[in-house]
Amino acid sequence: MKDSCSSASKLLEKYFDQEVTNEERSLVEAHLLDCPACQDELKLMEGLRDMIRTPVEEAVQKEDFPWVWQKIERGIQLEKRPNWWKSLRSWLDITPLHKRRVWIPAIAAIAILILIVTPLLFKKTSSYPGPFVVEYVESQTNNVMVYESEKSKVTVIWLFEGPEMESPAS
Amino acid sequence: MNQEEAEWISRCQQGDQDALRKIFDRYHKKVYSIAYGVLRQREDALDVVQEVFIKLFRSIKNFEGKSHFYTYLYRVAMNTAIDYTRKVKKFSTSSIDEDGGFQLSDDVEKRPDRILIHKELEERMKLAMGQLPADQRAAIIFREVEELSYQEIAEAMGCSIGTVMSRLHYGRKKMQKLLKDYVKEENKG
Hints:
The complex is a heterodimer of chains A (170) and B (189).
Chain A: H1 5-16, H2 22-33, H3 36-62, H4 66-80, H5 84-94, H6 96-100, H7 103-121, E1 132-138, E2 142-149, E3 154-161
Antiparallel strand pairs in A: 1-2, 2-3
Helix pairs in contact in A: 1-2, 1-3
Chain B: H1 3-13, H2 17-39, H3 42-59, H4 69-88, H5 106-110, H6 114-131, H7 134-145, H8 150-157, H9 161-178, H10 180-188
Helix pairs in contact in B: 1-2, 2-3, 2-4, 2-7, 3-4, 4-8, 7-9, 8-9
């Protein structure tokens, strides 16, 4: 490439892309007449353009597009069916809360509340009945045992019949 | 944007599927060109076309009319196609050697059949595209396939014209390097 190329080559790509002014075009064309290196450069760009463009043009000509539109219509119909997530999103979309992004801390607060409350709701009560009193009364006819729990307010009374007379030994 | 198109967009923003069909009829080939340009594979490109128009229907309410509608649509198409390459990972680099050149199988090197070589070229093109950073790939497809101006590319990519020129320049240089044998062959033939 000659020294004079330096200025023209800067314009060569613009010239190739038809983005030069009339003045610039004249400059490049005058230079090209006398510069095989820049002519080659231009041919390389043309060759690359053809390689990129021609197969695309051929592919477009071969293609039949009506069925593509049918697939697009089907795709849109499928999108129109709301699922639960979309319903939730659309609900959030219509609330002003969504726009203000207030719902994020709100949901976080609800989640924390649930975490706190859930263990309380499902807390297992102890099987230990608490303090209780047992009294036992013996008499000749009956024996009585009374179980009384203060916490659960339960009173249980057992009544035992008096001891049977042992049969005399034979 | 002409009046007719503005009306389709407005109707589409209100959920009118017939209006989307009008937009599809006008732009589906352009969207397919972008998708095919990136993916170089028919079925994948068609999947992308489908996805682009479904996405468009979903997101068109965000289009405020500050840019041209087609640059907005092309951006959606390009992003979807590039995302697709990442998703399916079909742009394997396994057949590219450390110098950035390609390893041709012996039988391919020897066979004279032009059709098969054409297929091989497409395969190489796909791999070369996969080697480019997404921004350079997008700029090249917008320019070489869609023939957008620098200004339109800048609008579609949300960058300056200088950035577009830089992406095009480095992208082309890399593609020329990766496809050097084929580019020379094309020029001869």
